[in-house]
């Protein structure tokens, strides 16, 4: 089956469409709102639709695939080579239209289940980074009170006094406010999340890495 190539540039509220009508040869540059986008393509013959991989592209790709269209998600750096003139929605849609007709690596369209797993992993990574930032901040702060921290996740709560440092209630207070119970990073080690395989430091399976 021969598909009509279509370039689609996705924005927050408006979607720019570019293609050439095979019957009339007319160049079509059409701007659609999100609510009209699927209705427009539901009334067309199957097309080869190219979209730049960006926020919302996975959702629209799944919906267009349900309508029988062939969707290719393209990397932004691949599309950039086809942009001519000033960058705007119309020129971007034309660049995508040209890029989708060329051979190149495309990004897989993911199911909602795969997308959900990705969201969980991204959230966990953000929280782990936040926890590391907290530990590093506490490390620097406690050094000002003559205490050093051993390596390891639990080390901020197992500090070692400097030989010449006296007792410091302020340092004890700082350790208390940075305890795991008060840390958003505790989400990563909560038993409920460890049960689902999101234990801090747990290795990813090959399937999760592929997502």
From TrEMBL:
Name listed for the protein in its UniProt record: IS110 family transposase
GO biological processes: DNA transposition
PANTHER family named in the record: PUTATIVE TRANSPOSASE FOR IS117-RELATED (PTHR33055:SF3), TRANSPOSASE FOR INSERTION SEQUENCE ELEMENT IS1111A (PTHR33055)
InterPro entries named among the record's database cross-references: Transp_IS110-like_N (IPR002525), Transpos_IS110 (IPR047650)
Highest rank taxon of the organism: Bacteria
Keyword rRNA-binding found: no
Assigned keywords, A-Z: Plasmid
Biological source species: Escherichia coli
Ranges for domain Transposase IS110-like N-terminal: 6-144
Pfam families: DEDD_Tnp_IS110
Molecular function terms, GO-annotated: DNA binding; transposase activity
């Amino acid at each position: 089956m021969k598909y009509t190539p279509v370039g689609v540039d996705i924005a927050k509220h408006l979607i720019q469409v570019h293609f050439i009508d095979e019957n009339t040869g007319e160049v079509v540059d059409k701007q659609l709102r999100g609510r009209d986008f699927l209705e427009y393509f539901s009334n067309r013959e199957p097309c080869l639709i190219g979209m730049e991989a960006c926020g919302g592209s996975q959702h629209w790709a799944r919906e267009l695939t349900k309508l029988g269209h062939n969707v290719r998600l393209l990397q932004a750096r691949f599309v950039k080579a086809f942009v001519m003139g000033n960058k705007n929605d119309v020129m971007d849609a034309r660049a995508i239209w040209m890029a989708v007709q060329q051979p190149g690596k495309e990004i897989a369209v993911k199911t909602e289940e795969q997308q959900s797993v990705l969201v969980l992993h991204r959230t966990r990574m953000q929280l782990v980074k936040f926890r590391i930032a907290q530990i590093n901040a506490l490390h620097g702060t406690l050094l000002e009170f003559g205490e050093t921290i051993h390596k390891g996740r639990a080390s901020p709560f197992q500090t070692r006094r400097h030989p010449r440092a006296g007792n410091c209630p302020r340092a004890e207070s700082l350790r208390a406010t940075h305890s795991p119970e008060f840390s958003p990073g505790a989400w990563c080690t909560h038993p409920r999340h460890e049960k689902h395989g999101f234990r801090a430091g747990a290795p990813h399976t090959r399937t999760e890495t592929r997502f």
